């Protein structure tokens, strides 16, 4: 996979002779392979290392201590070097070439139309193109230096290009923005296992509704919680990326814990779309418990009492007791007006019914490099704290109702920290669901 492992990073830092850290500032498959974007993201950042993955499996790149700029200038860097982490089909670390062994200095080209350029090696040049997931980069080399056959098998067609800044410290603060609770993960898990809705209302399982945009991670959140209790990573609910919602049915999922079920259900829904507003009738039917399990959403017509399976007289057990807005942490800055309106409409309907709401903020690993590298930095990450502030203002819920999580997505094994934040969020929602039940029963 085109990604740096921890030992790759250690190797690079050893070659650079530093004890500092690598912070990713550019990634072609996310940002696009373009000199313009590269300069916007990487200019004036001091020392950086560029890494390319070509279609022959070579992993190679260059280091410079000089700023990238868009000034049409060149600067000689005696500390710069070109390296091959892995040669074609190789699995062991290969080589680095320093300027002394090149017989010439490495010149750093600060050209606006060129990506990272290390004299002999120009990583890419505008215009680039992309076919079948491969970037045609216009990458090139100048003769008289290390021949490209040596470091990349003459192949400048990339699967990925990344640039990392060398930073003194990763962007975490000393004081957490949210206090870490002291309980062990196993204790939080036990609390959820032992949870029973408050007595008196004949509610066997409390119901949590998950709503949010296409691709926000609703189904993945259920899969994550399900995985925690199954003891291995599961993917019962289909998750992935698609133009329209991958989830097309209303699913009220149970979670098996050994031979029993947890006393809660997670209700998965079709993703909200910018162009297809969700029907308030559908939301009402879900909140009030009229919608049957496995109901197929119809984007062109809402559910009616005549729809087969419509639950005409729902009990307290069928109703929603907590509503979770599942929001992709990387999309908060660009949340669309139409989506925001849909959230507000759902919020209004939930408020009218006294249903508490939370925000499950997903993909926190994609918000912050520090969190990606170590999820335990979650409550220490400045970037995550900013997104939490922003989303709480945008939706109009207190910050304490914003629950950041990282869902299982590419993992094949469980991870205690992933479990921990998922469980914390679920525990919080169960408390809110109980508040809702108290309220309903008091009436
Ligand atoms: N990195 C990262 N990826 C995530 C996370 N949560 C979900 N994803 C990925 O995001 C994509 C969409 O996730 P889904 O769970 O299918 O999203 P959804 O909200 O159910 O989307 P629809 O059913 O299409 O409306 C998948 O490829 C997931 O692997 C997360 O916390 N971190
Ligand atoms: Mg889904």
The unique ligands bound to this protein are: guanosine-5'-triphosphate, magnesium ion
CATH topology group of the largest domain: Rossmann fold
Give the % helix. 25-40%
Number of domains: 2
Q: Structural class of the secondary elements?
A: alpha+beta
Question: What CATH architecture label of the largest domain applies?
Answer: 3-Layer(aba) Sandwich
Structure summary, number of beta strands: 19
Radius of gyration: 26 Å
Biggest beta sheet summary: 8 strands, antiparallel
H/I helix tally = 13
Mean pLDDT across the residues is 91
Give the terminus-to-terminus CA distance: 57 Å
CATH superfamily assignment of the largest domain?
A: P-loop containing nucleotide triphosphate hydrolases
β-strand percent reads 15-25%
Given as residue ranges, the uncertain stretches (5+ residues, pLDDT < 50) are none
Q: Indicate the CATH class of the largest domain.
A: Alpha Beta
The dominant shape is elongated
How would you portray this structure in words?
There is one protein chain. The protein folds into 2 domains: 6-167, no CATH class; 185-442, P-loop containing nucleotide triphosphate hydrolases (Rossmann fold, 3-Layer(aba) Sandwich), CATH 3.40.50. It is built from 13 helices and 19 strands. The strands form 4 sheets. Strands 1, 2, 3, 5, 6, 10, 11 and 13 form an 8-stranded antiparallel β-sheet that branches. It has 443 residues and is of the alpha+beta class. The chain is elongated and about 85 Å long. The model has no long low-confidence stretch (mean pLDDT 91). Bound molecules: guanosine-5'-triphosphate (GTP) and magnesium ion (MG). The site of guanosine-5'-triphosphate has 24 residues, from helix 7 and helix 10.
